[in-house]
Amino acid sequence: MLNPAPRLLLALASFLQVIGGIAHSSAFPKASAALAAVSLPPFFSNSFKALWLADSTTMFALAAVLGALAVQPNAAAKPIVLLLSLIPLFVGTLIYVFIGGFFAAYLLLATAALVFVAGLRLTKAVIPADRPS
Length: 133
Hints:
This protein has one domain (4-121). By secondary structure, it is an all-alpha fold. The chain contains six helices and no strands.
């Protein structure tokens, strides 16, 4: 039997990413309104909008991957899961450095820790030799 801890950790990490993606996406209209109130060249204004939505999309995509791994933890090798933890780690660190102790940084750092610990606790199941390839 597989250890249930990685599944629970990955499911919680997926949930946190969904919450983060929803919060970030729902803040886009306010961010756009604030952006309209300042005078920026169109390139920078449009880049801001694209990066804002790209961050939300990244959270939703990572949530989907982590959710799939929670259902089938052996679908990815341990090093891949450990590498996945770097995505929220780096984004959370950048938020902390440039914005400070904003809740999004903590949410992302918590996600990174959950995924990293889940990756460490993964045990690769032995694939039967008679399994068709």
